[in-house]
Amino acid sequence: MTSVGGNGATEELLPAAAPSPMCVTITFKVNARHYKTSMGVHVHITFIFNSVFAYIQTYNASLSFARYLRKLRSA
């Protein structure tokens, strides 16, 4: 999700569920043109943090799913 501030700068809001990497890439391309605003540096740092956080969430979910599949196979 993205909120647009009064000065035109975007600020990334952390989604409830981890988005897919494709979604993150699309969001990055959409917001790239806003990085030249006065808030650009802050937005960029926030975006990178949220992207990494979303990637870790997705990675953890895939790990637990793989564990679940192994448990099913061994049962």
Automatic annotation (TrEMBL):
Source domain of life: Eukaryota
The protein's name is (Mediterranean fruit fly) hypothetical protein
